[in-house]
Amino acid sequence: MRLTGWGCFDQRVSTVMNTPGVDGLDEVVRVLRQWQHDGAPMQLHPGDLGWYWRFGAETTAGALRTWGRDGEILALGLLDGPGLLRLAIAPDAGHDEELARRMVADVTQPERGVLPQGSVCIEARYDGVFRDLLLVDGWKLDEPWTPLRRDLAEPVEDCGVRIEAIGPEQAHVRADVQRAAFDGSTFTDERWHAMATGSPYAEARCLVAYDGHGVAVAGTTVWSAGPGRPGLLEPMGVHREHRGHGYGTAITVAAAAALGDMGSSSAIVCAESANAGAVATYRSAGFEQLPDVRDLRRRSG
In the list 5, 76, 115, 291, which could disulfide-bond 18, CB 3.0-4.6 Å? Predict the structure, then answer.
């Protein structure tokens, strides 16, 4: 995919920013999959794009920005809401100063079409020149998040409850559990079907847990990035009327097992550190708690 976009700082600089069209989405997903590997900072994952795809391919394409040169994508971002940019960068590009300076210019100048004026947040969880430049520019560390990881080299134990993989005919079940688990959720079976049309969902599964009476009590979606790469849980939730019975732990174990079946090297997730219950649930499902990470925020005014 040849990149086009904003002009360069001068004739020696070739990095450009681009908003891909719908026809460029599969290439973006392919590149993002290649960037996932164990031991890397937990950054934007193909599953994050897959979950966003519930709003449709056109909306997903419009929310993406890529940076690259000579036809090669080096960094990409997802505008996950009006004031949040979630970033990923190629494994060998974190110390590319020209790339970082171009990205900083694009994200800090509203006329370039990335972030608006005022208070905004950037999820850039990798070390490198880009974070350093933003901190020098006055951006501050935001609230902490807790990454967690479970190695999948060994088989995953049975989760102890009935789990079903959800297909198109049961999309409403997955959507109902999602809305019952998250206040304000707008997930519907129509949005499930939109999500399922995206290329990330070709390597994904929706899972629902049931209690002993056949009631759907928890749900999650797991996203593989390909064999030998980390897979993502996004999102996981327990029905508000069925909490406190271990269903969150059970479906998280089932999610890890599903990713293992798909060939993932590990299962990863990131939770708000302030949400002690979520962190405890993932730990009880065999996930290792990693050091907290912080996004960057620019305050208004």
Answer: 5
What are the Cα distances from residue 107, in Å, to 103, 115, 140?
Answer: 6, 6, 15
Q: Where are any strands of DSSP class E within 19-96?
A: 64-69, 72-79, 84-89
Task: Tally Cβ neighbours within 10 Å of residue 291.
Answer: 7
Q: What share of the chain is helix, strand, coil (3-state, %, to 5)?
A: 35, 25, 40
Gap between the Cα atoms of 11 and 39, Å rounded:
37
Please indicate whether residue 125 or residue 159 has the higher confidence score (pLDDT).
159
Q: Is the pLDDT of residue 12 over 70?
A: no
pTM for this structure? 0.94
Confidence band of 14 (pLDDT split at 50, 70, 90): confident
**Residues written for the chain:** 301
First to last CA, the chain: 39
Domain ranges, residue 102: 16-144
Structure-token pair, residue 137: 């520019």
Residues 154 and 258 in one domain: yes
DSSP state of 156: P
- In a domain, residue 298? The reply is no
Q: Say whether pLDDT at 96 is over 70.
A: yes
Cis before 291 (ω within 30): no
Q: What is the pLDDT of residue 3?
A: 36
CATH number at residue 167: 3.40.630.30
Tell me if 23 sits within 8 A of 106, measured CB to CB. Answer: no
User: Residue 234: which of 48, 56, 53, 85 has the closest Cα?
Assistant: 48
pLDDT of the residue at 13: 57
Tokens 């989405």 identify what position?
25
Q: What gap in Å lies between CA 230 and CA 33, rounded to an integer?
A: 9
